[in-house]
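To close the chapter, one final illustration. This time we ask the reader to focus less on the individual chains and more on the assembly as a whole: which components sit near each other, and how the overall shape emerges from the parts.
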Amino acid sequence: MRYLPKSPAEREEMLAAIGAKSVEELFSTIPEAYRLQEPLNLPPAMSEAEVIAYFQQRASENSVGYTSYLGAGVYNHLRSVVTDTILQRGEFLTSYTPYQAEISQGTLQAIFEFQTLMCQLTGQEVANASMYDGSTATTEAVLMAERLTNRRRVLVARSVHPEYRDVLKTYAKNSGLRVEEIGYTAAGTLDAKGIEASLKDDVCAVVVQSPNFFGAIETLAPLADAAHRSGALLVVAVTEAVSLGIVKPPSEADIVAMEGQSFGLAPSYGGPFVGVIASREKFVRQMPGRLAGQTTDLEGRRGFVLTLATREQHIRREKATSNICTNQALCALAATVHLTLLGKEGLRELAEQNLSKAQFALKELENIPGVRRTFSAPFFNEFTVELPRSAKMVNAALLKEKIVGPFVLGTAYPELTKHALVCVTETTPRSEIERFAAAVKHTLEQPL
Amino acid sequence: MAYPKEFRYTKEHEWISAKGDTATIGITDYAQHELGDVVFVELPAAGSKVTAGKTFGTVESVKAVSEIYAPVSGEVVEANTELHNKPETINSDPHGAGWLIKVKLANPVEVNSLMDAAAYEVYIAEKQKEASA
Amino acid sequence: MSNHSNRAVPHIVLNEGLIFEKSSPGKRAFDLPPLDVPEVDARKALGESYRREGVEGFPEVSEIEVLRHFTRLSTWNYAIDLGMYPLGSCTMKYNPRVNEYVARLAGIATEHPYQPQELSQGCLKVLQLLEKCLLEITGMDVVTLQPAAGAQGELTGLLLIRAYHQKHGNPRKRVLIPDSAHGTNPATAVIAGYEVQNIKSDAAGQIDMAHLREHVTSDVAALMLTNPSTLGIFEQQIPQIAEILHAQGALLYMDGANMNALTGVTRPGDLGVDVMHLNLHKTFSTPHGGGGPGAGPVAMKKNLEPFLPVPVLVEKEGGRLALDSHRKESIGKVKAFNGNFGVLVRALAYILAYGPGIRQATEDAVLNANYIRKGLEGTYDLPYTRPSMHEVVFSDAIQKKNGVNTMDIAKRLIDYGFHPYTTAFPLIVPGALMIEPTESESKEECDLFIDAMQAIAEEAKTNPELVKTAPHNTRIRRLDEVGAARKPVLRWKPAEKQSKAAD
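The assembled structure is written out below.
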């Protein structure tokens, strides 16, 4: 087999050196009754060309050739080929976790740069080397707030991504954490007055997303004030990180939980992505996940190491801040490369393009009789519209035009059955946006 | 390093120096040596209670975390906050400037049931023999 | 080997600074296509949420500088593509390049998890085939591909166990964990809401059966077992262990990190395991990438199926595949969307390349480990002498006599061109050297490794200082971890802001 660097003769030599007559002898500690006598029933071995052919077949059964208006936590953005060039370098792709710092400085310095970029983006003082994704980062942020305040109740806005809330509930079930949801106003955002009543001295955190699941940008300062007055922390989740190119960073937050997929990671049917936790320096010892720190070697040269490891599972074991072992190093590297390619001006311009494209799409849609924007708060590249009929039905018609329509809100928000979340990024040409609006108009003109 | 004769010692390598109904508590030279370079200390706030035999904080090196056990019960009067800036003091002066907390004793006679310096030195000599066996 | 540093002009490749230090206003590395819609007044559109300027401190460099920067950084890393990582329980095997190719195909990399399921049949078929293969390999009934990593798989497994017990009226209080276990095991048990009870290993490095029997009560939810253990030794009594647990209504969880010793040779499901996780980034060749991403599928017996995390892959009429999120007894979602699909693709590509011949990989892995064991026995102390499977654990007891410990030996191994083995783990072996070569190493590589370890053992006797101050041949010498922990510097700041917190 092409992945195995042994000739039959070498296997014989090695067995002889060990003093075993056959390889079966090496498995003698497995009780005979449990040793398989037949090969596993797996598909026959494939050559490289056959492996490729298999996946090309599968690829042809998916959505190639369609234009999509889906966002809802996973975003289509331009990716530079330079990113993959770096990612595919064997020294990055096939290297191990940088526990042996002297021979992992490439990875460690890249992590240090990632941590810096995340701080700059979010307006926070310290960021970790990444979490699995935005949903688990948000959950870990809440658990962190729980440890810091020693309180057991958390208030979560309903306008936080439904799947993020689901993940939090799964973790909360077993930790005695009580999760309570708070509603949104007509503007589509959270109201500080609305949460005040619920903010008793047993709340560890208020969790809000901005831009939120409806695309609306939250006003954070009053929420932070209300939370802090009752001794709770403000956790802000960010699913569309590109927004931070033009939207004010959540520096009022005590902990930011961000999804970095928009920075250089393909949608890949849902993963792997890259979560980030960023927070205040004074909270760093309660922060989960890996951290790269700057230091010097025996001869005074600057270098980087994983540090504050005593928070982590391999030392604290049952007292660890989290059970997380892996971070998403390669995904974080993709984000780091992507962001350094974009740079200060590029990110700004990218964000401005997204803003303009979305506004254009909204105008086109609002020209259709019966279609209107649902919420009044400012938005970035996603917005919610109300249609005169079921959004599901409209999408079914759009599909025939090779258009994947906007996310239907009704399943997660039963009060919003005729509403859909439209996402437009820099990747959608004007002609496509116009075609989309025309198709929606045409569908709505058909009798039911 | 010599073990001060006026101190008492625990099996978990804490020392306690009592005067009337207040006492100072720290970890011994043996403990700091086993731990290696101390990087961080977690101490209770003044006013909190400590219970004999239960943990009241941690001392961390790069690769390990050690729980610190209270030799006696009482109320914390002062924690050595200097250690937040200079945790290495625990390594350089574990029996002096590296003290951890000062407590008001709930039960001053508890101190008498702890090992004296001679008994502690015997205890750690045995431990060292076990380790190199 | 020279042991003095060369202070003559270091090559620029060795001296690459932080990307922020190369930044200069006005440089660009990326151009966007021109905007084809009217430009919006951002200040008006966003109101008080408007960010007045670009992100402060963000780098401004050119494309070539970005490429050089990261290429130079990469040359400071060791990697499987360069040589062996004998890291115990990490299974650092070859990451086949065709896996990277197929994961990047248009139609595979580009799919949105919320697109209509009728437009995702290709993705769903990939998931279905991977599920089938993993069930065949593990001998289990049902599998979920949701968890993003081994640790998350462990948590999912424990949550399944909890849900199962809850359904039977009592979630129970404790999880039993061998003292040789990986740190994620107890950390996970606590997060799942259980107390941890440590189970001793006996003199042979196996589970102490008497100690186990004593502690398996009706209060125990499960035993988390790694097999082979972290000592590389097969737990021969697994069927009996399963019986003891099942008699008390408890379940047997297997940490599948060491599947590389079992694939194609035996199946955990046949041995009595109720639920287990796999590490796709170990046994199934998906790349470590410097520390992730991975994937941690959880396979289980039928009795745990009702509690599967959502979504669950189901087959409908006409062979149409769908993801079902309406499962009344599900433990819920462990991660948003569908698991690490990109990693799952790579794992499937690996399995398809091998087919039923995957057993050969296991045999070669065990052969390599035993060959290395034979080559180093006598030179290094072997605390547990039962037959090794895919990994072997030595201790530094002999070298310690000269003041040289496992960490020193590991650092000196770097000078010989290898990545160190796993040091100081498992905890039950003081001064452990945990060595797992994997099947990807040739006889030649194994011989080079044995030679290097022999040479270091000799140096430990004749020149211990050389070993204790290693490594000598790396771009950077031993780093001050103590300083890094005492005064953590976790980000770059521009010179004039060194003393202020960034905003």
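Residues 117-132 of chain B form the longest helix (16 residues). The radius of gyration of chain B is 14 Å. With these observations in hand, you are ready for the problems at the end of the chapter.
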